[in-house]
Amino acid sequence: KWLWVHCEGSRDGYRDMETFIGTVHDPGRADRLEIAISGRGAFRRFKDVLERWPGELERWYAFSAERQHGRARAWLADAGYYVRKGLPPS
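Given the sequence above, the corresponding structure tokens read:
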């Protein structure tokens, strides 16, 4: 949840919405979402429109979370952190 709030005002979050819209198969839905993300309040309108289709909203949350986690992993890797499998040596 924190990552969503943090990224909501970012360009990455906006690009995520654009990318997600590209995965929507129904042209009418995609058009409505494109309109929703124009101008101020894009994040709120985007979610409001998605609420009309619960399956798409859930798909958005999963898509967004994966993108945010990917950015977090990349940031940690750039900072010199890495994942070590297994337990640390005792």
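Confidence is low (pLDDT under 50) at residues 1-9. Try to locate this feature in the token string yourself.
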